[in-house]
């Protein structure tokens, strides 16, 4: 069976992931529905259950854009990974679990939006499209144990460490075994070289790409160029709040989906010019 030694530098995005058995065909993705500083112990237990059971990578996923992009980087750098065990409970605000499944099922549209995702900003701007496609080809299936938002019952499959461990075990069997209606086994590595890439930070720190200092931009000026609907789709309650964060480069402008529409093309370009000006 084909197995590949992951390259030096694997996994490239180390933030929220722990490394297990490099030759395992499965990664565990625990949806994080809280802030970083308050990871509930039951979710940490799921991460550990995946590692103890022999997965390649086990970590948390919080957002439908940058978080997902980092996960893609880590997985394409290890061709042995062919399955993702998805567990925990969906994060109602970001819908990262739904976005992951939609990405694998449907891919991206011409605006790099995940087709079918109902998340606020399911855009993957920071990775080349071929890397996203490679991810979609490499992953054969998601073992979907994800619970509904707000679930707390530890007997639910997606919150039960024993079920997560059984899912991981099933993925690395040499002969197919049945697990919750799926036939799982280790098919060997994806027949392609490891892809070692990181999330490009040009969206969050573009001035460094251009060799510039971070420009000072007035939040008020930015606000005047925003759609001013206060629709909240960017994750902020108002356009003013979004403008404030935008002026400090705490959010990418693409996080306002309205700005991506053709009717706001002039405003979008004006904002880009302001943010990139010296
Ligand atoms: S910045 Fe955009 S997404 Fe955010 S509230 Fe304003 S119009 Fe809506």
Mind explaining what this structure looks like?
With 278 residues, the chain is α/β, with parallel strands linked by helices. The protein folds into 2 domains: 17-184, Rossmann fold (3-Layer(aba) Sandwich); 206-276, Orthogonal Bundle (3-methyladenine DNA Glycosylase II, Chain A, domain 3). It contains 9 helices and 7 strands, in the order ββαβαβααβαββαααα. It has helices at residues 41-53, 66-76, 96-106, 129-138, 161-171, 206-209, 219-225, 239-247, 265-276, and strands at 17-19, 26-31, 57-61, 83-88, 141-144, 177-179, 182-184. The strands form 2 sheets. Strands 1-3-2-4-5 form a 5-stranded mixed β-sheet, with helices on both faces. The chain has a two-stranded antiparallel ribbon with strand order 6-7. A hairpin with a 2-residue loop joins strand 6 (177-179) and strand 7. Helix 1 runs parallel beside helix 5 (161-171) and helix 7 packs across helix 8 (239-247). The longest helix is centred in the first third of the chain and has 13 residues, at 41-53. The protein is globular. The chain binds iron/sulfur cluster. Iron/sulfur cluster binds next to helix 8.
């Amino acid at each position: 069976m084909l197995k590949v030694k992951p390259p030096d530098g694997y996994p490239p995005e180390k933030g929220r992931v722990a490394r297990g058995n490099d030759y395992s065909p499965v990664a565990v993705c625990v949806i994080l529905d809280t802030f970083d500083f308050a990871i509930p112990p039951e979710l940490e237990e799921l991460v550990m259950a995946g590692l103890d059971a022999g997965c390649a990578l086990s970590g948390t996923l919080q957002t439908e854009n940058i978080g997902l992009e980092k996960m893609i980087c880590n997985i394409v750098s290890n061709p042995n990974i062919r399955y993702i065990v998805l567990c925990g409970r969906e994060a109602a605000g970001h819908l990262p679990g739904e976005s992951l499944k939609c990405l694998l099922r449907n891919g991206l549209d011409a605006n790099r939006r995940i087709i079918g995702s109902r998340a606020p900003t399911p855009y993957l701007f920071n990775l080349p499209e071929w890397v996203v496609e490679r991810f979609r080809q490499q992953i054969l299936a998601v073992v979907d144990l994800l619970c509904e938002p707000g679930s707390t019952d530890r007997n639910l499959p997606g919150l039960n460490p024993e079920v997560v461990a059984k899912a991981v075990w099933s993925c690395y069997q040499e002969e197919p075994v049945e697990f919750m209606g799926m036939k799982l086994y280790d098919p060997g590595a994806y027949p392609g070289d490891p892809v070692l890439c990181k999330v490009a930070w040009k969206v969050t720190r573009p001035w460094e790409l251009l060799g510039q200092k971070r420009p000072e931009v007035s939040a008020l000026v930015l606000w005047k160029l925003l759609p001013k609907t206060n629709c909240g789709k960017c994750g902020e309650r108002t356009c003013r709040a979004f403008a404030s964060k935008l002026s400090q480069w705490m959010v990418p402008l693409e996080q306002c989906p309205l700005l991506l529409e053709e009717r706001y093309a002039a405003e979008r370009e004006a904002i880009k010019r302001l943010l990139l000006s010296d």
